[in-house]
Amino acid sequence: MTVIRTATAGLALLLAAACTAPTPPRSQASTATSTVCSQPPGRPGAETPTTIDVIEQAYFCILGNYYSGATLDARSLLTAGFVALTQELNRNGRDVPEATMPALTGERKADWTAFETVYRKTTDQVPDLRDKLAVVTLEAIVAGLGDNHARWTHDVKQHPDHYDGDGYGLGLQANVNGPQVDGNPGVALPPLFVTTVQGGAAQAAGLRPGDIIESINGSAPFIDGKATPAIAALYPRYPEARPVRLRLLRQSTGRRWSVTLKPGLYQRDLAALQVVQSKLLDDSIAYVRMRGFAPDSADRVFKAIARLRTGRTLTGVVLDLRGNGGGSPLEATRLVSAFAHGKVTAYQCTVDGKCETSRTDDTVELINLPLMVLTDRSCASACEHVSAAVKDLRIGRLVGTRTAGVISGPAQPYLLSNNTMLGFPTRHHLGPNREVIDRIGVPPDHHVPLTPQDAAAGRDPALAKALTLLQK
């Protein structure tokens, strides 16, 4: 589920020029009026401003291609878009008499015409806000799907001093991560605590793994055991630069203190950037950590195990998928194929129950070793594809905590006429037993959560449990 962000040169100038441009008459509208969308043939060109015609294209693209587009009540999308439009007017201290939601009947084309008519009348009254209103409207329409794999990628910026491998943010990771906050916060459990200090402001302030985060900008991260939106402030993206104030507790000393962290660039540990890392444990167990399902990542896992196997007899494999945010479904299937042949690893289904079957690639050589898979609440998308297959097909055991439940389905990219990318699933993911995993996650066979005390002491209870199970 990884979104590739690329900066577009000259975008600011294009947007500035468009701010005062009048809305073109319908008869003079460009080819942007096309409601047909297609998968990108290559790298898109420079991004141009978002207009009502781009919104129209995205609207009909969703209705024609989204996995439940055939049964979707399109009025919900238009309503979400109009809500965002009026809220943005209010945020800017403006309002327009024409900004009244039109009556919608459920007939998609007629409803779009009614929506567009009011939209144009409204935005013509505030031409200086036209570009911003278009952006928030389209963002809200896509968000209205309520799908963790639906994205509109636009106006991507990168820090001017960014270098390959740099991170941006506060320089820490907590036991509830950024994608989890956006995708499925319901699987998060208190307390919120630092699991990794990567660098930057967090390192400079002396934060350590195990430090409990009691408040974020004065707000509690959990209320009545449920995660709050405050957690999202831990993971700012450029160009967000607002300082974040944390109230912390270090249990080992009882110290409570507050610190203000300013987002910025920081250099990440090069080892943490490797997609696949491996080592030998207890002289006979291959430990392989996989951080994402990038192209060829399954082959990298196989090669790592083969190298550890050279000159010795292995007794098992620990596959560490914690923190793995997903990626290629093909790589997920290939990885499972090294531990089972002749099996179904997942189903990809339309809303009417027509399913495509993902089967193991039986040309992949079997590893023929006992398997333990470490999972956590940051294991999402393709990572959950693998986790469900391991559990359902009984080719290994899961150790750790329930996965994220962020696996609506593989997203397909579509190029819009302003060279922005719209992505969403055309089919819905089901596990090998035809179970829904999205918003639910995959439960471990052995529930072994990480505690603040474990993090502070550098202990890894899930790994210790996996090794114990392999040694039985």
Structure, explained:
This protein is of the alpha+beta class and 472 residues long. The chain contains twelve helices and 21 strands. The strands form seven sheets. It has a six-stranded mixed sheet with strand order 11-12-13-16-17-21, sandwiched between helices. The protein is globular.
Structural class: alpha+beta
Q: What's the overall average pLDDT, rounded?
A: 90
Major beta-sheet overview? 6 strands, mixed
Percent of residues in beta strands? 15-25%
Q: What share of the residues lie within helices?
A: 25-40%
Work out the radius of gyration.
Answer: 24 Å
Instruction: Report the strand count.
Output: 21
Distance between the termini: 36 Å
Net shape: globular
Counting DSSP H or I runs of 4 or more residues, the number of helices is 12
Q: Order of strands across the widest beta sheet?
A: 11-12-13-16-17-21
Which segments are poorly predicted (pLDDT under 50) over 5 or more consecutive residues? 1-35
Distinctive features:
alpha+beta, 6-stranded mixed beta sheet, 3-stranded antiparallel beta sheet, 472 residues, disordered N terminus, single chain
Q: How are the secondary structure elements laid out?
A:
Blueprint lengths: L10 H8 L33 H14 L8 H18 L16 H17 L5 H14 L7 E3 L12 E4 L2 E3 L3 H6 L10 E4 L2 H5 L7 E5 L5 E2 L2 E2 L16 E7 L4 E7 L2 E4 L8 E6 L3 E6 L6 H13 L6 E5 L8 H9 L6 E6 L5 E5 L11 E5 L6 H11 L4 E4 L10 E5 L5 E5 L2 E3 L15 E2 L4 H6 L3 H11 L1
Parallel strand pairs: 12-13, 13-16, 16-17, 17-21
Antiparallel strand pairs: 1-19, 2-10, 3-4, 5-8, 6-7, 8-9, 11-12, 14-15, 14-20, 18-19
Helix pairs in contact: 2-5, 3-4, 3-5, 8-9, 9-10
